[in-house]
Amino acid sequence: MTNELADATSPYLRQHAGNPVHWRQWGDAPFAEARERDVPVLLSIGYSSCHWCHVMAHESFEDPAVAQVMNENFVCIKVDREERPDLDAVYMNATVALTGQGGWPMTCFLTPDDAAPFYAGTYYPPAPRGGMPGFVQLLTAISDTWATRRDDVRTAAASVVEHLQAAAQVLPDGTRPVDAALLDDAVAAVLEDEDTVHGAFGGAPKFPPSALMEGLLRHHERTGAAQALHAVRRAADAMARGGIHDQLAGGFARYSVDPAWVVPHFEKMLYDNALLLRVYAHLARRTASAAAGRVAVQCAEFLLRDLRTENGGFASALDADTDGVEGATYVWTPDELAAAVGDDDGAWAAKLLGVTESGTFDAGASVLQLRDDPDDAARWAGVREALLRARDGRPQPGRDDKVVTAWNGMAILALVEAWMWRANEVPGIDGVEADPVASAGDSAEDAWLTAAEDCARLLLGTHKVDGRLRRSSLGGRVGEADAVLEDYAYLASGLLALHCATGAQEWLTEAQDLIDTAVDLFVDSESPGSWFDTAADAETLVHRPRDPVDGATPSGASAITDALLTASALADAGSAAGYRTAAEASINRAGVLLERAPRSAGNWLAVAEAAEHGPLQVAIAHAPGDGALVRLARRLAPGGAVVVGGPRDSTPLLADRPLLRDQATAYVCRHFVCDRPSTSEAELRGLLESSLRGPALDRDAAAHRADAGVDRMLFPPPGTDPGQTFI
């Protein structure tokens, strides 16, 4: 056999095409070979921007002597976790069950007849080190155990599979309904865990809590809770000023190795930056913070400049390493600063950016931070440009050009929402702060919307095959791996956002098609509100994975619930009711997470807050060129709301909603109960601002008022105490 990875659609697999290991791709053939040879399968899972994956490759997989042991005693399979998240989920759970921890590279040993894991770990050094066995030592022990203790191996494998199947059961019922009181308690529990010194939650390693921040923002919008907003602002400010944020080019690294956000793990992931762009844009829109707005603009520019592919998609990641050295592109010494900008500016920049002789990352090398605003904005703009130009002249990290459906859906959603904020912002009217260090690209937000549309067309034209989605593509060539639940969910959410932004019916139609397909393929028909992560007709693995817990990215279950809730506010009445019922069942199923582990339910919190808030629907009928009310609504509506504008009957939300007195007319509805139509900006502003401060409506009372034809505002008036109840 020879290495078979050269023609893979994964850059990570192609990185291993030159290894002397006889790597195979996942499929029936390598398992058939393993059965014929009567040897175990060695499964190695990683991804292209993973630092320790590169280390193990250099130390072991490129070594002919190690490769010989692997080839003689195992059939070796290499998997890109980003291309096959289903396999990654199954075998990561096994690794955690066997060792108590997980990570990448992941190394699993499987039985050849049923792919059951019987031993697993992560990185192994070539020789014993730090209490870890050497990799060849491990390979020899596994091979000997397979040959001499086969019954023990099969017993261990059966035990692991039994554990995995038990762990994949549906969530137990919570003891409380998901209502305003539960959401208040969930937020209170989250805030008790806040790191008020360094921002965000927990200790090192510290990951950006994007979904949780979005949930807290929506909670603040619904309740007026100041502490929730303060927590978001502290986290946003701390991350933006720390080394995890690229102070020169924008964008964020995957996580910080310390609690103060100083030293990042340097890989930059598309999903992190899409999720963070959405949060910073939302924060800027809600608070008029120039600092949050600047970070959002730079993050959007980073996506378009550094991750956009030639065919209009967005690449998965930038490597942590440059020429095998982690962070080499990004760190600086005082002398390097001086060489780039001169002695005076170099000394000034070193003080501003925390670059010291001793270094913050390695001996003498520092990660750039921006702990304080520059005292000379114009000087900083010039220095930043010069440093970025000098850094661009260094060797650059590799880029994984694989286009992943879900993560590109996140990028579409984030770019559209950022466009809705930036393109509709009116300085001097909405309290927008002046920004003396704004990016030079601030006027280019229309390119964000164009990029989102281009990406959507690429995904629908390339990744949608015979009505079903595929997980990824490379260079326009779609891969064979089927999409998982998050792919359908996030692409649908991105298309729904495009529908709101453009009014184009095609995006709503395509989104509904994806949602309907997801319901058919992924819902657990025996447990309403529960979802599998793989399709009903997907490849049979040792168990069918499902994980409703939100992690570094939101779970597929919470993401599809978000799409269902949004679609219920946009679709025609016939479809909307079914979407709403499915969304509510999913939210109720996740109530136990919000009740017992709210920090692991950030996206669930965001979705549940939107549901509790209505979701708010704003439909604005207007003549061509008359979009003032639409722009105002986009500036003021809370997260999770839908705002659609256009001619009457142009979309389902505008059906039978005429212009009054030939003027643009806004229809504001909450819990599908509508207020009086409004034709003035002042009145619409009052309605929307009231919705941001008031308590949740009593839905039964609201329905009674609507049935009785009571002509009264359904929201408390501006300036009133949000603790009061208004009937």
Automatic annotation (TrEMBL):
Q: Kindly give the Gene3D superfamilies that the UniProt entry links to this protein.
A: Glutaredoxin
**Hey, what's the signal peptide range on this chain?**
none
Source organism phylogeny: Bacteria, Bacillati, Actinomycetota, Actinomycetes, Mycobacteriales
Protein name in UniProt: Thioredoxin domain-containing protein
InterPro entries noted in UniProt: 6-hairpin_glycosidase_sf, Ssp411, Ssp411-like_TRX, Thioredoxin-like_sf
Q: Which residues form the Spermatogenesis-associated protein 20-like TRX domain?
A: 2-165
Domain of life of the organism in this record? Bacteria
Q: What processes does the entry annotate via GO biological process terms?
A: carbohydrate metabolic process
Origin organism is: Tomitella fengzijianii
Quote the CDD domains the UniProt record gives: SSP411
